[in-house]
Design brief:
The chain contains 14 helices and 17 strands. The chain is of the alpha+beta class. The model has no long low-confidence stretch (mean pLDDT 91). The protein binds flavin-adenine dinucleotide (FAD).
Amino acid sequence: MLQTAQDRSDFAQSTGNAVVNIVGGGLAGSEAAYQLAVRGISVRLFEMRPLKMTPAHKTGNLAELVCSNTFKSTAPNSAPGIFKTELKELGSLLVHAAPAAQVPAGKALAVDREVFSREVERALLATGNVERVNAQIESIETLPEAYATIIATGPLTQGGLASFMQSLSGGHGLYFYDAIAPVVDASSIDRGIAFAASRYGKGGDDYLNCPMSAAEYDRFYDALMSAEKMEFQDFEEARYFQGCQPIEAIAETGRDSPRFGPMKPVGLIDPRTGKHPHAVVQLRIDNLSRTAYNLVGFQTKLKYPEQKRVFSLIPGLRNVEFLRLGSMHRNTYVCSPLMLEKNFALKSRPDTRLAGQITGVEGYTESSAIGLMSAMAIWCELTGRTWALPPRASVLGSLCHYLFHSAPESFQPVNVNFGLFDPSLFEMPARRMGKSDARLEMGKQSVRNIVKWRDETGWMPRPWNPR
Ligand SMILES: Cc1cc2nc3c(=O)[nH]c(=O)nc-3n(C[C@H](O)[C@H](O)[C@H](O)COP(=O)(O)OP(=O)(O)OC[C@H]3O[C@@H](n4cnc5c(N)ncnc54)[C@H](O)[C@@H]3O)c2cc1C
């Protein structure tokens, strides 16, 4: 094992071409592999699929999106929108590969998951520096010698590595639950009932909407409440990730909760009645050929036959064919404020880095961004540059700050959001600004700060843009 910086540097010099092992070819692993490989660093990418599958992945594709097919908003006054602009400036593979796979989804960046994976694989292949090894890794000790190893095995880390991850947080494994929403066949949706529209007419007819009257909603709600759910193991506590609550857990908080949550009818007029429906189930395009739609916000852990029974009560879905049913999975992460150095290396093993969701971020884009950070830190070391975390006055910097400075006892995974920002770090004009304008302004400064930091670090973006 290459323990010290000197060992690692000697190794890199003796090989003339440093090699990095990456375990896990998901969002973070693929991003890290690309960023290193495109800079001439050889990567061995260990991915177990399709030899072995996780409970959520369905293919052997790299960077598979396990649930929703969206990377969230692109609006310049939203945290996900600013975040993607920052990542674009750093040459993120995810942000540059997504447009080739884009499907219409209003202001959100949504993709055809198959095409997106294909694009990522093409980018990695084009570097000529990535060797994909199809194997489930049980222990990092068994990996071939390398300058460093990045573990990016994600929330569903399998086999012996899962126990290793558990042991990292002092035996008190941190976890929460993430759920998957069903996907239905487009041709089986009743278009006499489901109407195409986006909220407030923004985004054209990107969504299909299944409108419900008060009576239909009540019938659906009662069926949802009485449906059988998959149970957690006795020793497990139901800790859900906020924003990924199963629809039945939302319903348990009150009869109107779904109607004020994922089933809210605001901004939508049913063309059959000319009025707002009582509630709405939105369906989002799931693939470029528009043959599949997912049920927005309908993550669930109802038993499979119950999903078919209850969701078929939604007007427009009476005879729908389910291409994939919803499910729920345990999602593991480590306590980064305690376990990680600022270069994403384990304090206990400096040659082993972490990336992606296991560091305590949540979401496709966030996971990929930490893959980029982990790779960038390695590149800085190998090229003799000084690694410093991105500036706090940016979305990426705020996310990293959260990972390293949170109180360990209450550390929980996060999506990017304005709550991570410290507004006092931004120079705001003296005149009063509305919330939206203020966010737009902070967004502009964030992107500028990232570009400045990028240039000072000497990082030249190498975007994948084959077309
Ligand atoms: C059920 C579920 C639903 C989710 N839904 C969403 C969503 O809708 N939107 C969103 O933004 N985020 C969602 N997430 C959160 C998360 O951002 C994604 O899971 C994201 O893919 C994490 O990226 P990653 O690279 O860290 O892990 P992954 O993308 O999961 O990649 C990890 C890779 O490691 C491989 N692997 C695991 N163990 C081993 C091993 N021992 N040896 C070799 N390979 C191994 C896996 O096969 C996988 O390819 C969801 C998570 C879960 C669990």
